[in-house]
Amino acid sequence: MKKKLLGLFLSIVMVFSVTGNVSAQGYGKEVDVNVMSFNIYHGVGLDGVLDLKRTAKVITDAGAEIIGIQEVDRFWSSRSDFQDQAKELAEILGYHYVYGANLDRSPAEGQEENRQYGTAILSKYPIIDSENIHLDSFGNEQRGLLHAKINVRGIHVNFYNTHLGLSVEERISQVQEVIDISSSFEGPNVLVGDLNAEPHSEEFQLLLNEGNFVDVFEGLDHANTFPVENPIKRIDFILTSPSVKATNQEVISTEASDHLPVVSKLVFKR
C-alpha cells in the first residue's frame, strides 16, 4: 500500500513539474513580425496605371507580413476595373485578409455587387476575428476603424487600420473613438493608417498621451510619406503599445501610389 501511495505521489509531482516547465517555456516568449501601413490609392501609381501586381510587389519586396492598406476599392468603378482589390491582393500574396467598407453604395450600372470603398488588413498569419467600426464623420466621407485579432505564432495581436477625416474637428473626435475602442481589448495593440495629421497635431498627440500609443518612427529622420515626390509631410504611421519593441523602421521609396508606405519590425512578448 505504501509503495502504491509513493508511486501516486511521484506521478503527481511529475505532472506538476512538466506543467510548470511548459508554462515557464511559454512565459517570456518573443515573436517578431514585419508590419506595414500603405495607402494604395486604389492600386494606381504616379504614372496613372492601375496595377495591383505592382502594389503587391512593394509589399513582398519589403517583407511585410501584416499590412494595413487604405483607399481600397471593392467593385467601386471603372477606375479600378470593378476589382475586389483586397481579395485580389490577398490571393497574389497568399495571405489572409479582412475588408472594411466605409462607403457602401448600390451597384453601378450593369454590375451586381455593391460599390464599396474602405480599408483592408492583409496578414500572413491567421485572423481570428475582425470588425469594421464606423467613426463619427460629421456628414463628410464616412471613416472607419478596422480591427482584426491576429494569431502571430501563438501571441494574439490587436491590429487596427484607419484612414481619418480631412478636418481637425473630425480627426479629434475620431481619435477619441479609436482610443476608446482600442483600450477595451486585452493584449498588444498596433494601430496603422493614413491619419491625415502630422506628429505635432493635437489629434496625434492625443493618441500618444491618452491612447498610450508609441510612434515607432519618432525621432527618426526622413520619415515623411506625402507626396511621393519630395515628401514634406508625415501622415502615414505605425503606432504600438509601449510593450512592443520596434526596429528596422523604413519609409519605402515607390511610385506605386501617391503615398509612401512605412514598414517596421515589431517584437511582441508574452
Short account of what is shown:
This protein has helices at residues 2-26, 52-62, 85-93, 168-182, 202-209; strands at 30-39, 66-74, 96-105, 115-123, 127-135, 143-152, 155-163, 189-194, 214-215, 236-240, 245-251, 262-269. It is of the alpha+beta class.
Can you walk me through this structure?
- There is one protein chain.
- Strand 5 (127-135) and strand 6 (143-152) form a beta hairpin.
- The protein is globular, with a radius of gyration of 22 Å.
- The termini are far apart.
- The protein has one domain (31-269): 4-Layer Sandwich (Deoxyribonuclease I, Chain A).
- A 6-stranded mixed beta sheet has the order 3-4-2-1-12-11, with helices on one face.
- Helices cover 25% and strands 35% of the residues.
- It has helices at residues 2-26, 52-62, 85-93, 168-182, 202-209; strands at residues 30-39, 66-74, 96-105, 115-123, 127-135, 143-152, 155-163, 189-194, 214-215, 236-240, 245-251, 262-269.
- By secondary structure, it is α+β, with helices and mostly antiparallel strands.
